[in-house]
Amino acid sequence: MAALSGPVDAERLELGLARLARLGFEPVAAANLGARAGMFAGGDAERLAGFHRLAGDPEIRAIFFARGGHGALRLLPRIDWDLLARHPRAYVGYSDVTLFLNQLVTRLGLAVYHGPMAAVELARELTDGERESLLGALRGELPATLHVEPLGAELFDVTAPVVGGCLSLLAAGLGTEYRTPTEGAILFWEDVNEPLYRLDRMLTQLRLSGSLAAIRGMVVGTVQPAETRLSHTGLEAAGASDADLRELLGELGENFDWPIALGCSSGHCEPNLTLPLGLEARLRSDNRTLSVG
């Protein structure tokens, strides 16, 4: 289990490790899992060394991340990608490791798993659906099928690789070599605690950067908006209800001819179902599914 981002609560870590063991895994903890350096699980060098030690162990078949937070982006220039290529395996996580996961897809050609983290979902106990989704994906029982709700009445049936993750991280990667390539892909995104104007700002940033020009479709996860309040700027006055989000996405979609679907339950939500990234996926309006693999 790795920690590239925020410090890990000891009690939640213990619960997560125990529940991983009950699922049939033999947990191996990164050396920095108990460390704390300000807002990180150890300094940059400490987090990197802990991760690389796991990544260099050929006996480890999967690396779960403990939690999100902030910090993985700082380490991307120092990741030993050749080491990871020599020891391909499953990687499971979401949130702050979004760009790292997508780099594994684009640099190394791996499939990765946008799914539960050890000191988050595993610490609170997986739901039956989460457990079946995670174990099925790791066993290669594909396609992994998640329910979605089409935005609008148009029929569509699109097949393309799926990439993406946390919207704020996808936006943070723009203008860097760690940008997630989206051309010809179905773009999945989700986020949490973001007011409507910030969601609009990040989606506009993706649009203006050209990142949405050549995608094949957009799948939106369960977005849990931040509490909003009136302010002198008026930016937060609109709130962020489901209707507001649909209106925002409808306006975005008017600029493009690809379909949009909502409600894919993966990421900062419960249930947090495991969504493989980097594999061919089929997005259909008739049976309201995203099927990966």
SSE diagram, text form:
Elements (H helix, E strand, L loop, with lengths): L9 H13 L21 H12 L6 E3 L7 H4 L5 H6 L3 E4 L4 H11 L3 E3 L6 H4 L3 H11 L5 E4 L1 E2 L6 E10 H6 L13 E5 L5 H13 L8 E5 L20 H12 L6 E5 L10 E3 L2 E5 L4 E4 L1
Parallel strand pairs: 1-2, 2-3, 6-7, 7-8, 8-9
Antiparallel strand pairs: 3-10, 4-12, 5-9, 6-11, 11-12
Question: What keywords describe this structure?
Answer:
293 residues; alpha/beta; Rossmann fold; Glucose Oxidase, domain 1; 2 domains; 8-stranded mixed β-sheet; 4-stranded mixed β-sheet; 10 helices; 12 strands; 31% helix; 18% strand
Which shape, going by the Cα principal axes?
A: globular
How many individual domains? 2
CATH class bucket of the largest domain: Alpha Beta
Low-confidence stretches: 235-239
**Mean pLDDT over the residues:** 94
Strands, total number: 12
* Major sheet: 8 strands, mixed
Task: Give the terminus-to-terminus CA distance.
Answer: 26 Å
Q: How are the strands ordered across the major sheet?
A: 4-12-11-6-7-8-9-5
Helix-and-strand structural type: alpha/beta
What proportion strand?
A: 15-25%
CATH architecture of the largest domain: 3-Layer(bba) Sandwich
In the CATH hierarchy, the third-tier topology of the largest domain is known as: Glucose Oxidase, domain 1
Query: From the alpha-carbon coordinates, what is the Rg to the nearest angstrom?
Result: 19 Å
